[in-house]
User: Fold Protein NDL1 from Punica granatum.
Amino acid sequence: MGESCDSVSVDMEKIHLGGKEHIIRTGRGSVSVIVYGDQDKPALITYPDLALNYVSCFQGLFFCPEAASLLLHNFCIYHISPPGHELGAASICPEDPVPSVDDLADQIIEILNYFGLGAVMCMGVTAGAYILTLFAMKYRERVLGLILISPLCKAPSWTEWFYNKVISNLLYYYGMCNLLKECLLQRYFSKEVRGTAEVPESDIVQACRRLLDERKSTNILRFLQAINRRPDITEGLKRLRCRTLIFVGDSSPFHAEAIHMTSKLDRRYSALVEVQACGSMVTEEQPHAMLIPMEYFMMGYGLYRPSQLSGSPRSPLSPSCISPELLSPESMGLKLKPIKTRISLEDSE
Assistant:
């Protein structure tokens, strides 16, 4: 058993380009965290969507050179995997209690305490965005900012609840079958990249399909059960005082949810970017569309890409660093109405 664990650790260090895995035992189960970068820098934590981990959810963004230079220059990255979603994860014991969304949010505070982190920047996708938003509500003093991609905040609609029950039954009876993968890929990606009978699916979809094969169906089911039982947290959104930047693809099944969430946040501290011809996972499908809004967002904390540096990249992130005029969406370069971005075919040729 020890040998197989060692081999997984070595493989992970290769895959994560020097990132180191930590298995942290919390009061609500063990969690894998991949740490990448200089731990003296401010912390950015990530949390992926259902059935994904950082490789399948955030790699596109971190492989985008401009975004990587902005994020990796200014932050140490802590990629948190939902329990049992990390690379090489074994099936979680069926007797272990299924965690609630509150349990998953409470795991994060234990992770921060384990690493001795104070307040952190957070980035999450869909289910992961919900967990991080709930975390920000429960532990406001530990969150500096939220970058949310196709987020959830309401309890599941009847449509989503039914859809999740179908996925649950597929997971329970058939495991990671082709039909289940198609359901999940529709959740993540727009039809433009999923392909048709005439057009093959894109490389990012093919890569995600392969990575889904590595997930243990019982572990996905546990995370899905937690998300399907989530409460509505809309009422708590107005009390958030950290700055929030929301991205959503206009083809995302959760597009309306992101619009609703934005309408409930304090407009002085939040902004929405809609990305055209894109599904839920903007981080993978159109990561370049995130760059300019993120740059303006980070300027509010005195953070810049290396070519624009005017100070130390290690300057601490703290609310006192934020000039009041940079707290408004207009000053972030964002209009109060949603921005739509489109990559034209002419530009890409």
